[in-house]
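Researcher: Can you fold this with zinc ion in place?
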Amino acid sequence: MISPQALALAQELVRMNTVSANSNLELIHFVRDALRTLGVASRLTFNADKTKANLFATLGEGKPAGVILSGHTDTVPWDGQDWTVDPLSAAVQDGRLYGRGSADMKSFIALALANAQAFLDSAAPFAIHFAFSYDEEVGCFGVRELIADLRDAGIRPLACIIGEPTGMVPAIAHKGVYRYKCCVRGKEAHSSLTPQSVNAIEMAARLIGKIRDMAEGFEDNEPRYEGFDVPFSTASVGQFHGGIADNVVPRDAEFRYEFRDLPTADVRAMQQAVLDQARALEPGMQRVASDTGFRFETICEIPSFLGSVDDPVTRLAQRLSGEKGTTLVAFGTEAGLFKNAGIPTVVCGPGHIAQAHQPDEYASLDQLARCEAFMRGLAASRSIA
Ligand SMILES: [Zn+2]
């Protein structure tokens, strides 16, 4: 059974609207103030216009280094979704906590906070850090500032547990998500005069064909990484815009595409192959008009994550969750960013991704109770692993 106090805290966080487009400061200030009453100071790092913040705090100041409990404070929106409960109501029904963020991932944050005093009282030889970020759902942007701040401040945590919803099963790998926008500038003309034009849609299509060929190449040739739903890297085009009329050769076209790379794949080489193809097409375009060509923008680059069953933090998560095995997850998280900063990382949190981002998102009270036991076990731990 989850304690009433921890459940109330999870409800309180769910009731705060922290859709990524909004400020998350209500939640961050709430956590900061709660920690302050326990005598714990928080480090806040802000976005450019100071409307959003990350929070980092150390419980057990003076201990040599610690274990990070990491969660993102933002949620996806619910526009157009058919909910039978108010997404901000945090209703408890049928053994479930309902609401946006209940699974992804405010319950984990609430359970960490509910155990703050236990972490302070802990006799463990390591500290516990809270790392609560903004703008994870739109590209893991906030946590980069937080990680840079730790580096600048010389804070070197021992390990990181990311409480994304894995059903409390430790996850040790996920693919990356790399998204780009390609803007094609051609030259317009009456469609009866095509030799005097550069058709932006057709040039875009050539590049899209390249991306499709690459995707088929991954499927045919890439060494498999068993355990993922799709055990090879994928590429796809998600949006396309172009053209104004049937009889006008289009000057502009724009498309967005993504790679979801295996942890064992080279995603930089994937994007480079697209850039190379664009550079190869440009001379032919520029023979007609010099200001034509391709321009690329990065939408997001969320690195893949590959932990290890042998990492002490994986064994710690197994012990605290009571799970003997590990899993892989299909979704991106901040794990690759922490791992790439030299911090051994595992993903383990309450609720299931199948309910995340959906109408009537929920986390079962049973999952919350398992996460609470995990936190209490962590406070009682005398070593990592
Ligand atoms: Zn999440």
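Model: Folded with zinc ion in place. The longest strand covers residues 293-302.
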